[in-house]
User: Fold these one by one.
Assistant:
Number 1:
Amino acid sequence: MKPVYKVCPKCGAVGCFKPFTDYTRGMIYIDNGIRTETIIVVDRVQCSSCKSTHALLADFLIPYGSYTLRFILHVLRAYFHRSCTVEALCEQFSIAIATLYKWKDLFLEHANLWLPVLKRMSQISIQSLDDFENIDKLPSSFFRRYGFSFLQSHQTMGYSRSP
């Protein structure tokens, strides 16, 4: 399901979007515990008021990245479960060790914003990650509250994902 923007995140105009263009993007997701890759088409709209353009990203996509939210949470769940070494985990999902630690650090930073009960890394449990997966529309809700996207490390001015 594609998101629909009602308010321009840049200028605040209401009902001002018109189709603009689209682009393809690689997407890495988890399918039955296995890393899977595909190419998707992302639609863009343009605000008729300020002429800014916005990508219509589904909630499972993280801006400026190829990995889906569910993929990252699956990897982090395995990391916090400690069922294998970091090296084996990264090899299993074909990610760099630095990427895993970047995700872990972003998760801890963002989780502490979103769920104040997660105060320290030692308090994170497998259930905590499961709780994140069960929050309906987590990325767009997180963005509305904090002004940046959950697990997005690339910061830009004027970028947004409001529904």
Number 2:
Amino acid sequence: MRRVLGFAAVSLLALAVSVPTALAAPGSGDAARGGGRIHIDFVRYDPAGPDNGSNAHVNKEIVQITNGTNRRRNLAGWTVRDSDGHRYRFPRTSVGRHKTVTLHTGNGRDHGLQRYWDQGFYVWNNDGDRATLRDRDGRVKDSCNWGDGSGSTGC
């Protein structure tokens, strides 16, 4: 009986390891995917439901940035930009190792690892756009492109 259970446990472990990260929930990406760097992990550019422009719906547009390094990092002065020139500059934002900060497009009050861009309307184009992450010196650290798709993308 132990041999059968052992085989079943190994088979389940192999199955779990082989599941693609694209099926993972937003913000749960493997930090190794970012290559030990700070990177854009996920973008939801077209939230489900009608584009009614309400703050609640605009805040469902998100960009998630993951600290894939082995130390806490401060993103103060880092920016996220779209192709049309909208720019968000991070205030003092301490992100622990292998943790993710979520940037919501709409209005809100920053707390924990939730940041708010305070835009009055949608930023990300549903038919294609590019999110670009730059450090405080303006160097591009990562970017994520998409076309007309499902409404979200892992980067």
Number 3:
Amino acid sequence: MPRFRGPKIQEIAVLSLLALVIAAVFTGAAHYIVFAEQPARLQLADGPALQQWKPSYSRGFVMQATLAVVGGACGIAAFFLEQRDGRLLAGAFILLGNWPYTVLVILPVNRKLQAIEVAQAGGESRSLLIRWGRLHAVRDLLGILATIAFLWAAVD
């Protein structure tokens, strides 16, 4: 029986692909927060806006933190195990950059918001929620840049 001798199918770089998919999911979640959830939250009165933010932040933190770590780890592993492409390292470090950015820049705002009782919500909590939204938009940008780096490495 003759064997098919068509063009060779390139091996799929699984870790590179996984890093790309995870970065895209991270970006989609961050994008949703920036363009859907945060604007909707800010249409609420001060108390309900803060009340909605608290559990939303807690759940979102776990999801996005995990995605950043796993996606970054996949990017680093892909660099060392699949291909020595600096774009993979760039994407990984950009995605992992969400951690220090969150700890150093966003966490102080988060702590202030968490400390405000819903019944005490007012101008200060609204101002902090607006600031939080602007700061979170940087996470969206980092996700976009990481996704572009991983995609660039995948299509080249």
Number 4:
Amino acid sequence: MPDLRIDAPAGALRAHLSRPGVAAGPWPAVVVIHDIFGLGDNVREHAGRLAAAGYLALAPDLYSRGGRLRCVRTTLRSLLSGEGDAYDDLEACRSWLAGQPDGNGRVGVIGFCLGGGFALMTASRGFQAAAPNYGPIPRHLDVLDGACPVVASFGARDRSLRGAATVLEVALRDRGVIHDIEEYPDAGHGFMDRYNVGPVAPLLRVAGLGYDAGSAEDAWNRILRFFAQHLGSGRP
């Protein structure tokens, strides 16, 4: 399916939409937030997997406006500050999905790396379920006050997020937020993202980076079960 445009306060936002290929709606929906590399094939693959499970899956390109380097810097600043165009863009996507005639009005959010951070930062902003994957923990944990149910996945070999799973577990438990947190012992950062890195893949694994099939499949199974419970399922 070709990319579409979503109206947002800062201007048109490019996005990729994956629809379930079988059965009729209404379907639950999910906003799929890309990693620091932007809206690439791996993110479209994630959206396709959600669509196959019966979800309207919308993956926005948070780098839609301006030069690439400028967009990356601006988006990172937004992630850390909790304000800015990125949040308006994500709200525009949530509202667009909630208003679709073939949707059931319930919208979740899933993110990877950078997107995982945004999934946590927006968990209290109108979503019904959030799935942050190896995303940074918010600097100020009070943004999790009133958060929707959270299913989060981390890799124990991810040196950049050491201890993050425990911090998030405690923060959500203390706030009474329904949650499912898992840290995979054999996984590092980006363990759910397939990139064509060729012969350097073993080196990335030694460095605590890269795809890990077993951990990725288990994480997806947990996410889909969790979404089915809190968003509903579009499968017949």
